[in-house]
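User: What would this chain look like folded?
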Amino acid sequence: MNNICGIILEGYSHTGKTSILKALKQVQAKHNNERSVIVLSEHYTQVLHRTSGGLRKLTQAEHLRLLKERVSMLQSFNTWAKKTGQPEKNSNKLFFILERFHLNHRVSFSDSLTEEISSLENDLLTINAKCVLLTVSADIGERIMSRNKSEWVGDKKKDLKLESERLLEQQEEYRIQAERSSVPTIELNTDGKEWLSHAEQMYNLILNQKT
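Assistant: Here's the prediction, encoded as structure tokens.
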């Protein structure tokens, strides 16, 4: 019996990953079905990293190695819980949330994917990982502007339209890669921005499906 389960939040920028992540932590604290929780934001998992004031993209090998290290850590915790016995106790159960993980890798390196990503996804299955792909159907431009409206005035409005189109195209690539992935994935539309409601839905789904 596994003492671990968790959610992987995927999706391109502005789909609500950060808001959902915050809401999930609130929902888990309310239910308290697992006393041990690990939450890793995209800072610890994504391909792009900000270093020395600029963005650096990890190579395919570097990113795979990073993801494998994160999964290996979770697997080791699960092994420890099994060894200590009494798996029915909440104190032994572990819940995790990962932001931007295997689908982020698939989309970033879609032209040169290796068998290693399939191996990584098989490891995710051993720790009862379920993926939620956040998407939007409404005008994404509004969300892009919400972070810093002053950047999208005057002639920049043309750039905003191009950026919106680019992100919607990327959303389709996420859907394609989700279909190809072996990790169970549900798509969740976040147009309504009902973050707590979405989080409750996700959390209950994961708990009902864990083995």
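The radius of gyration is 18 Å. If you want, I can go into more detail on any region.
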